[in-house]
Amino acid sequence: MMDAVASIPPFETFYAEHAGEVLSLLRRRVGRERADDAFQETFLRALRAYDRLHHGDHLRAWVLTIAARVAIDTHRRAGEPTDELPDLAHSDGRPAYEELAFLTDTLPPKERAAVSRKRRSRSAGTVM
User: Fold this and answer.
1) pLDDT surpasses 50 at 128
2) Phi, psi for residue 70 in degrees, rounded to 5
């Protein structure tokens, strides 16, 4: 019997699904001030290798491995030791849509849940 192999999604879909987690990891590893550059480097490396993937299994692990290696390279370029890279403290703060939550407080629970779900899905798709 043949094992099912996960298909490879379009790169845009892959990016939207993993961008938030990659940025969070990089902020912990290299700090907020260097995370944006490391984030771009991570997805540039992923894009360059994306057409060589044979299946879509374990894409999350794959991109997080790339991000971890980019973090190490970032520390090396800065002349910092890379023996043990600590997770740095960071604060992403509250998502912008939560600042407008008072506008939905008067809605019935079902409608409030629908609006909340829509806001979260939009904000997850717009991480860059």
Assistant:
1) no
2) -65, -40
